[in-house]
Write a structure and sequence with these properties.
The chain is an all-alpha fold. It contains three helices and no strands. Keywords: Membrane, Transmembrane, Transmembrane helix.
């Protein structure tokens, strides 16, 4: 049988030296009162993403509500909910014209 203990010790020793070397603090680098401060561009990006997410949520809510309203109307009047023109015409005849609402897009 082959004795692998010297090989394991050498690999473990090399691993410990590498870990010690990687964990040491680097010399020089960005130091001073301005190090680590964020720029206003980051805040601008976060605000833009927040506005985009809120706008998408608002648009989804309007579309979901409109689709749900059309589905309920179609079920109550015995129409096929997938017949878009038929439901639109029946809603217009019932006085529930959705064209009065302004579309965002």
């Amino acid at each position: 049988m082959i004795d692998l203990s010297p090989v394991i010790t050498t690999v473990a020793g090399a691993y410990n030296e590498t870990t010690f070397f990687l964990a040491q603090q680097q010399e020089g680098g960005p130091l001073g009162p301005e190090f680590g401060k964020a720029s206003p561009v980051g805040l601008l990006i976060i605000v833009a993403l927040l506005v985009a997410i809120l706008t998408l949520g608002w648009m989804f809510h309007r579309r979901w509500s409109r689709m749900n309203r059309r589905r309920i109307f179609a079920e109550r009047h015995g129409l096929d909910p997938f017949d878009i023109e038929g439901v639109r015409k029946a809603m217009a005849e019932a006085g529930l014209n959705e064209k009065n609402k302004k579309d965002f897009l």
